[in-house]
Amino acid sequence: MKSQSWFAIVALSIAACTTTTVNMSTTAPSPDPRVGLRAGWMDAAEAAWNIRLVSTTPPSPDFINRSTPGDFQFINSDMSFTGSYVIQGNFSGVQVWDIANPKAPRLHKAFVCPGSQSDVSVYRKLLFVSGEALNGRTDCGVQGVTDTVSHDRLRGIRIFDITDIANPRHITDVQTCRGSHTHTVVTSPSDTANVYIYVSGSAPVRSPNELAGCYGAPPDSNPNSALFRIEVIQVPLVHPEQARIISSPRIFNDLVQAPSHSEAPEDVAAAARAAAEARAHGGFTATIRGSEIVLGPRFVAFRLDSIVKARGGTGTPTAADTATLRANAQSIVDLIVNPPNRRPGPPPGPTQCHDITVYPAIGLAGGACGGYGLLLDIRDVANPKRIGAVADSNFSFWHSATFNNDGTKILFTDEWGGGLQPRCRVTDKPEWGADAIFTIAAATMTFQSYYKLPAPQTPNENCVAHNGTLIPIPGRDIMVQGWYQGGVSVFDWTDPAHPREIAFFDRGPMDSTKLVGAGSWSAYWYNGYIVSSEIARGLDIFELQPSGFISQNEIDAAKLVHFDYLNAQDQPKLVWPASFVVARAYLDQLSRSNGLAPEKLAAARTALARAEQLSGQARHDALAQLATQLKSDSQGGAPRALVTAVADLAEAAR
Amino acid sequence: MAGAALPASDSLRIMRLALATKAPAAYARMKKLFFVVLATAACASATTHQATVSPSYTAADVQFVSGMIGHHAQAIQMAGWAPSHGASPSLRVLCERIVVAQNDEIAFAQRWLREHNEVVPPADPRGHVMPGMDHPMLMPGMLTPEQMAQLDAARGREFDRLFLKGMIQHHQGALTMVAQLLAAPGAAQDGPIFRFAADVNADQTSEIDRMNRMLDALTGSPQ
Fold it and tell me: Which of A169, A335, A349, B94 could form a disulfide with A252 if both were Cys (CB 3.0 to 4.6 A apart)?
């Protein structure tokens, strides 16, 4: 009782300082505080759970139109990070923020250069910016390009030297046929002289008179079609001005049948029941793409008639004829479903990717491409190869991908409606405009579940799954993700079949009477903080709060992971330094999951605390002993990662 | 919007406000557009590195946005028949999504036209309704009244087949409308229009692919 009231006082005092209470409950607040928030631009009401808004910084003067809330030409887009800087793309250029003090980000440079979407990446002293829209100019002018064919138009990748980040120096442009909606910087472990860029473009192909070699006709009428391919740009690090397209891999070729859990479970069950019933009553069935289907009466009558005629008979088929059909039904169906000569015409499959996330440490990439999620082998960076593909009838437009840290899972997003539409209303299905989680085993992706922002939004809030990154909590797959005006959602997908939201932040709509585009374009973890690019409201920085889902030790362990730079679509392997807090984070997880007997857990905590007081050989010995103890406990469930973390600590103490 | 009292300490901001408040009047009539473009271009070159130039738009933009309303309305009517016409479960899923998606896009199109003081045509599934014209105009890819009657009369598997054929034709028409838009001088310079056109292009391309596969499965599978 006493400790509870003490806790209440602490909670209250923290609440007074930060407007967030420390809540160790694992029950989501009910009713959901995100419902019914007051509308407003810079003054909308806010709701937060297990996350704290550290600062919110409005766009710089050149990137805001105060008389038009949510002015489309000033949309903030994606972000990239280098050192203490956030580079925030905008449909009118790029803003560079210094977030060394996350409570008060400082504008370092506002660089006007229109042309959506201004997807940004950095690599060492180079900045890459995507241009897709028709109004982007090579000279960064604001007057647009009104001619249908013009050499002033920039659609592709702009490359800048940011040795002096306050004064980006334009080096060159690499123009592409469909422009660059997004791009992905790819580093090759075996080629340190170059950096590569995969260009994804979802807009129509431009005229060959504007850029030679651009053909929008399908490959069957023009083998040089700019459709059905991605572009790979090579940037020589010593001579970035020589950047050029070195390959246009046709990664969609022969993409005929992707495994798809196409029907809803109840439909699949109903079809299976119908097939079983038909079989029980002497009906004919065959298997098409893994599902048993009932052969209809007309099909059966026609085939039986053929069998009768084939033996030179007439009249009603005999029992022998029926047996012949039964024996051959599957091969007849196979021949019909997979005819030797497929129909002519353009190859099926996506014509482009929307975005590609590479994970060079494991040699894989996840491509979100039209109606497909692709798994690519990128060990030969210039020549990515498709090794797996999935489709999903609940997915409209595959938007982006994120791997878990050990590469055993991949999460794809469906940006149904392109981000301008309100797709989180009460009436919108939870599996539409959501994330889909797959496990990966030997290039086969297996669907596990959907995750969608659980709080309904109003029809005046554009909302759908969008960009996020992992939060580097060891031993778990935790992700933060922007959902446009649905806000920021943090969720745990360690169990891929049961993802669960564990923290959120949301604002009311921009306008209570109509849809005005805004919200979190992307929310990324970077060196201890969550940074969110707010389309209309600027830059938000958050800090995770300890809760019943995440302990302070886990947050502290996450903060140990330091990036010199970060491009979210060039996914870095997360590695934790040997640290007591990492070991404690694992112990907290064991405590939460009841994975170790309480007395063993308590003993391990005590041993760890004692070892921390020691130094040198004494510390090493204490930790080595603890590692051995945990190893013998591991039959009881102590994870290998904990044993390794303690053993690493022991090594570090030598 | 007009005359908003704001600190105007720097000249860039004054220029921006001037442009922003001028915009609605300038948008009012298409024939003035040429001069607006000239005016904004002049402003832009005078203040080279200042992001705010009110985006201009052309008759082709208006035609695209308003034409898409009737075009989408027909798709919604077709898709709305799925439950009552015995469509297969997978087609019903597709139709449900088409209804939601295209309703939202109609709302976007009507909002855009309203905000730019343009005529807002009704969502008429017979086609694009223009003031002073007796009959709605069929936009590219739209089904003729005969095709619509045929589809409405079909049931079950035949409905699936006709729907897929019809909707592929319909979606290809939308891609044609995007291509026509982008081929028009000065068109799709306005950010939302380019985004809308690019989204239509990307979504409907992948939906055509999906429907082609469904049609293949339908005509290839025995019944």
Answer: A349
